[in-house]
Amino acid sequence: MVTGELYALAAAVCWSVAAVFYKKGIGAGAIPAVLIRTFFAMLFILILYLFLRGGRFNFTLTGFLFLNLGGLLRLILGGMAYMKGLENISVSRFIPILFTFPLLTILLSSLLLNEKIRPAVVIGTVLIVIGVWILSKGHNSGSEKNIKLGVSFAVLAAFLYAFSVVATKTGL
Prior knowledge:
81% helix
């Protein structure tokens, strides 16, 4: 397996576990939850980066702007949609819908980054859609406030994540 795929799988595991923790701690509301999550995550990664790299930052202005755009779309706007979705529907319904964002990411990366879409990617994407459709079907689990609102926020977060991935890739 390639290193990129291993990192992607590690991220998926971390995001899955984090979603359960977010659902447990979301009592403060979506926006405070995003602020708390983002602040402590940024503080942790800054300390880790300073420890490992000694504070040497090397990036272009264009890279800086695109990385900030990616962060704004994913961490702030996508984070608010994420938390609002979790407030309204179950984690088991929200996460599969959210993770449709690769579909739009593939399209955007083809259009904006001139990446080639291989047949294996198309087949894998179709399988993702089928899997998400199967997982997101079903009735209210009893703990869900507003399914339509929760699903809408999951879709909005997916779109914001997709645009963020393309902006981040451009910045890197």
